[in-house]
Write a structure and sequence with these properties.
Elements (H helix, E strand, L loop, with lengths): L1 E3 L5 H10 L17 E2 L25 H4 L9 H4 L10 H12 L4 H18 L4 H9 L16 H12 L3 H11 L2 H10 L2 E2 L12 H13 L5 H14 L7 H10 L8 H12 L8 H17 L3 H13 L31 E5 L2 H7 L5 E6 L3 E7 L5 E4 L11 H11 L7 E11 L4 E2 L2 H4 L15 E12 L2 E2 L5 H11 L7 E3 L2 E4 L7 H17 L4 E6 L11 E9 L10 E10 L8 E10 L4 E8 L5 H11 L3 E2 L6 E4 L6 E3 L5 E4 L2 E5 L14 E5 L2 E5 L11 H10 L18
Parallel strand pairs: 2-3, 4-15, 10-12, 18-20
Antiparallel strand pairs: 1-20, 5-13, 5-14, 6-7, 6-8, 8-9, 8-10, 10-11, 14-15, 16-17, 16-21, 16-22, 17-18, 19-21, 22-25, 23-24
Helix pairs in contact: 4-5, 5-13, 6-10, 6-15, 7-8, 7-9, 7-11, 8-9, 9-12, 10-11, 13-14
Length: about 725
């Protein structure tokens, strides 16, 4: 009934293309091309890379036995093959790993395959481990806060492929439009093209480190001549791709910033953990979980793959037998990967609730606090020992340039205290300075993201600080909220309208006979928050089970919103993955959108609803202009869809929308949380309503399948919806 789209093997791809009625130029058109010798800049000796005869230990273009020897499917490490110890990791080996992962649907097999490759890298060329990791991550080439992101436009790639393979850009573009995968077009073109040899030598084969370094160069390029420089580097990479492997395909996809093989960050961390584990413990799931817990904690406190890899190698090499790290020894990562001012930490998140009773049940016999839930943007503010101040968003984006006024406000707030370093968790909210009124998030979102000058700011903001994670060299993560809050208020001075503490109300231990009065207290405080232009309340434990847990969505924090008390308990953050053409007055734009949640366990986008009503003409036009260039010819291999759902266009996952719905129901049509509540049915969100764009979230940070299941179970309903609410498209 349900189909999980995966990229098929070539024979299946050909059959699918035939069945889909694709005509005109296809990949078969490449066969009509004569092999065309091409001389490129990559074949000409330069001072940086002189042409020399490769040594016997260095993989080169004729050395297919060495380049292609590595077999990702071989489980016996003695038979898997590899490359000479100390030599650069061949990109051909990594591309073979990508190919196996792309054609595999089992998450466990994917993780094992990548773990085996990492083991080979650790054993043979550990210095290349970081490059391998970042090429797997693909979307980022450095820590997220350094903003070194790849994502080359199609025009440059098409031009580079044409020039590198002796075909015209028009021909490449035609193939791309028919096939839908520029990486496959590049590989097919490369396989039919030969290189005019210069000085009787062939280009050196690609190494992982070389590909990574070139991608970093490209990502950092800017200016008038940057396009020509990028094109030159891309051509050099393509000419050096081995024609017998999939290198060209994954080089191009990597340059696009989307490997499209269903490999997410959690799987990379799991594979990295498995690769370092001692052979005696690799098969023990409980020990794997223990080791992974330490790795995740280390990465959440210091989200830097280079530091994580270096730390793992340090722990690995100082063990006596150097065969691996025992699960109990992964705790040593905390020596190197820990909370540090200047490096953002993954924020702690709250779970939704839809009733006062649920709050009191969760915090029964515990003191707790209710805080205003502000309608702004999460901000993590760092003061460094050198006095520098940095501001980070919830997804690690460095927002310091966007909020120069926040820098001034936090500096003034800390001026009278001995603050040498700190990390403050806060919300930045738009305010009207003349009326002292808080303004909605939509106003804040109009503020420029770069080159903001304090004297030219039109949207003023106020900082509402609510937590302290780090102070004067000491981590406060293990301290209870009550102690963290006291330290926060003791070190910073309030300036009304610029720097304030979150308005809060503490509630003592609640006894059964006090439940009714406690509900009334919380209800009244919620009404005050809403009257103050806030979304609702955050309810948190104060002293019991009250530590700060980075990257965790915890039951220790609950969010209570007035609008959702009679709904599903919370809004959802969903990804538009497809659209339906509008009719009637909506002709010329997309009239409805297919939305999906994200399942990090299976690394799949799962469809949950179809959004069409409640969208203004202005919003529809805006969405159309933003997404029309993100269309793809077929659903990605990581889209879990029902065969009955057939939107007119499919999208790459690029945006996250906050959506409010009336309720959740079991559905045979949608795949969200399939298997978590019903064995063979998913969950649908009924009567969805668009709230806002969540530009502070990436698609993989959308509401998860497990969260959808939790929201459904929290309704206390067993609703089955065999006929989904959007079967009548006439209204669109």
């Amino acid at each position: 009934m349900f189909t999980e789209k995966k990229v098929a093997v070539p024979k299946k791809e050909a059959a699918q293309a035939k069945d889909s009625g694709i005509g005109g130029h296809g990949l078969d058109d490449i066969d009509a091309l004569p092999e065309q010798p091409v001389e490129t800049a990559a074949t000409v000796p330069t001072k940086e890379e002189p042409h020399t005869k490769p040594s016997p230990s260095t993989p080169h273009d004729d050395d297919h036995g060495l380049l292609l020897l590595y077999n990702p499917k071989e489980k016996n490490p003695m038979k898997r093959g590899g490359w000479t110890a100390g030599d650069p990791v061949p990109y051909a080996a990594l591309s073979k790993v990508f190919a196996v992962i792309e054609d595999e649907s089992s998450r466990l097999i994917i993780q094992d395959t990548l773990a085996d490759f990492f083991r080979s890298v650790i054993e043979l060329t550990p210095s290349d481990l970081v490059s391998c990791i970042y090429l797997c991550v693909c979307t980022e080439l450095a820590p997220a806060y350094d903003n070194v992101q790849i994502g080359i436009g199609d025009a440059i790639l098409i031009k580079s492929i044409g020039e590198a393979t002796g075909t015209t850009p028009k021909f490449v573009k035609d193939l791309y439009q028919k096939q839908g995968d520029l990486g496959k077009v590049a590989q097919a073109s490369r396989s039919k093209q030969s290189t005019l040899m210069t000085f009787q030598t062939k280009p050196k084969p690609l190494a992982v480190a070389h590909v990574y370094n070139d991608m970093v160069k490209i990502a950092k390029m800017s200016g008038n001549n940057s396009q020509a420089s990028k094109c030159s580097i891309i051509k050099s990479l393509l000419v050096r791709c081995d024609k017998l492997s999939d290198e060209a395909k994954y080089v191009i996809r990597g340059l696009q910033g989307k490997l499209r093989i269903g490999l997410a960050g959690q799987s990379i961390l799991m594979s990295l953990t498995q690769a370092f584990m001692h052979p005696k413990e690799q098969g023990d799931k409980a020990l794997q979980a223990e080791a992974l817990k330490h790795v995740k904690r280390a990465f959440s406190e210091f989200p830097n793959y280079e530091v994580l890899a270096s730390s793992l190698l340090t722990v690995f090499t100082r063990e006596n037998d150097q065969k691996g790290v025992f699960a109990s020894q992964f705790v040593e990562l905390a020596e190197f990967c820990h909370l540090t001012a200047g490096t953002p930490v993954s924020p702690m998140l709250a779970r939704p609730t839809k009733s006062y009773a649920m709050v009191l049940d969760r915090f029964q016999a515990m003191p707790f606090t209710c805080e205003y839930k502000y309608d702004g943007e999460r901000a993590q503010i760092h003061i460094l020992p050198n006095g520098d101040i940095r501001i980070f968003s919830r997804n690690f984006e460095n927002s310091t340039e966007r909020f120069p006024d926040v820098k001034l406000s936090i500096a003034n707030a800390a001026a009278k205290a001995n603050v040498t370093s700190c990390i403050v968790d806060a919300e930045v909210v738009a305010v009207d300075k003349t009326t002292n009124q808080r303004l909605p998030f939509q106003v804040l979102s109009t503020r420029p993201r770069k080159n903001v000058v304090v004297s030219e700011i039109k949207v003023a903001v106020c900082i509402y600080a609510f937590d302290l994670l780090f102070l004067n060299g000491k981590s406060f993560l293990k301290e209870p909220l009550q102690a963290r809050r006291e330290a926060l208020k003791g070190m910073f001075q309030v300036t009304p309208g610029s720097f304030e503490f979150a308005t809060s109300l503490d509630v003592a231990n609640t006894k059964d006979d006090d439940m009714e009065s406690t509900v009334e207290i919380v209800r009244n405080f919620l009404e005050e928050a809403v009257a103050g232009n806030c979304e609702g309340l955050m309810v948190k434990t104060l002293s019991t089970e009250a530590t700060y847990e980075p990257a965790n969505r915890s039951h220790k924090w609950l969010k209570l919103k007035k609008d959702y008390l009679d709904g599903i308990g919370d809004s959802t953050d969903l990804v538009p993955v497809g659209a339906f053409y509008g009719r009637g007055k909506r002709t010329g734009v997309y009239g409805a959108y297919l939305l999906a949640c994200y399942d990090p366990e299976t690394e799949m986008y799962q469809c949950i609803t179809k959004l069409g009503t409640g969208l203004s003409d202005e919003v529809l036009g805006l969405f159309f202009n933003q997404l029309k260039d993100c269309t793809i010819d077929r659903p990605r291999n990581d889209y879990a869809i029902n065969d009955l759902i057939k939107p007119d266009v499919w999208f790459e996952p690029t945006q996250v929308w906050e959506i409010l719905g009336a309720d959740l129901s079991i559905s045979p049509k949608y795949t969200a949380a399939i298997g978590l509540v019903s064995k063979d049915k998913g969950i649908s969100l009924r009567f969805p309503r668009y709230i806002r764009l969540r530009d502070d979230k990436t698609p993989v940070q959308a509401t998860s399948a497990a969260q959808i299941a939790d929201l459904y179970n929290a309704q206390g309903l067993n609703t089955t919806n065999d006929k989904d609410e959007f079967d009548d498209d006439d209204a669109l």
